[in-house]
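pinging the channel bc i need a second pair of eyes. not urgent but kinda urgent?? the chain im working w is below, pasted from the shared doc
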Amino acid sequence: MTTPRRPRIYLAGPDVFLPQSEEVGRTKQEICARYGLDGLYPAEGLDVSALPFGEQARAIFESCVELMDASDAGLANLTPFRGPSGDVGTAFEMGYLFARGCPVFGYTAEVVDYGSRVVDDNGHHIEAFGLADNLMLEGPMMRRDAVIVRAAEAGPWPLAALTAFELAVEIMALEFGTIPGS
């Protein structure tokens, strides 16, 4: 009898920019495993240092696309990064996964609505819909009658948003039916 393969989850987010990226990635993979999911952490084990500088970015991009193509779903860290919104690379990854037909889940350590965080002195409209981030980032979840999980973070890596991450993983496991013992 063969054991069914665990759902593979692409772990998108700015966590890869943290000095402790590898430790954060392993921690998130361990949390996924506890819920019967296989977390795929971008650039895990990828060493591009021997490549010419201009080729490093392409190698990282291709590695991430390969991981997304092997994924059954995406889980995106939308904790604001370098501005009031989620990381732009994460936004691309969410769109890529959504276009492939994968369910996309999101989480953030920011509990304040997006519209309250954005300041515009030029008279442009602000998306004040009560969402956690830009409506196009929350849209893939809204299609499944879900939302971006929000939970304040008190842990060692605020950007990693481990509290919200684990809540989102539990929701994913419920949706995939992989919670051990269920």
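so The chain has a mean pLDDT of 93. and The CA atoms of residues 105 and 171 lie 9 Å apart. — does that match what u expected or am i reading it wrong
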